[in-house]
Amino acid sequence: MTLDLVRDLPTALADRAAAWRLIADIAAFWGAPLLPDGGCTDAELDAAEARLGPKLPAALREAYRLIGNRPDLTGNQDTLLPPDRLYLDQDCLVYRVENQSCAYWGIPLAALDREDPPTVAWPDVAPSVRVEITPWTASFSAECLGILLTEPLFDDSAHVDGGGVDPADLTGWTELPRVHAPGVDTRYFARPDALLALLEGAWLAVRAVDEEALDAACEALPVLDN
């Protein structure tokens, strides 16, 4: 299938129903379509809600019904927590953890009454150090888009490299609209057969529709300044 992120991502960032449709398209593009057993059940989400206390936002429930049981799409690098592992910390509902527990993502408790609340992130620090919580995405559906644009690029069929990369040198790629809050240095670039993520200007991840397309995309990349 074809995937037109340049056309469809702006609408998806503004409309969560469009976000879920685009997530389904992204999964299908990578040959991993969404399936009925790939999501969590209402019973699992209800149990999490009863355990935690606060009501789960509509967008979180909708997302977990789609991709809550798809670690191939959501957990190649960092981990989207299953419902029974959601927990409360830093006045937030924590839903995602960095692969070495160096950072955490959550929804502020004060925003849980919104259908599609904003998300925040914070680093793991020593108990004596004040935690700095920073904005991450304007909505939970936007965060899910970011996860689907990033996590599949860290599986075994993708290419990951480190080093300084100047986005101006990424010729042949079209930069996509920013998914994250200002200050979050994650940028996405697309071409018809591949997707590229540039993380903090230092980690570059690329995935393509097949090995031949991946080789061609990587050969055209600028030499990384390791």
Please characterize this protein's 3D structure.
There is one protein chain. Helix content is 31%, strand content 22%. The protein has helices at 5-14, 16-29, 42-52, 58-67, 71-74, 140-150, 211-219; strands spanning 79-80, 87-89, 92-97, 103-108, 119-123, 134-137, 159-162, 174-175, 186-191, 194-199, 203-208. The strands form 2 sheets. Strands 1, 2, 3, 4, 5 and 6 form a 6-stranded antiparallel beta sheet that branches. Helix 1 (5-14) packs antiparallel against helix 2. The mean pLDDT is 93.
TL;DR of this structure?
31% of the residues lie in helices and 22% in strands. It has helices at 5-14, 16-29, 42-52, 58-67, 71-74, 140-150, 211-219; strands spanning 79-80, 87-89, 92-97, 103-108, 119-123, 134-137, 159-162, 174-175, 186-191, 194-199, 203-208.
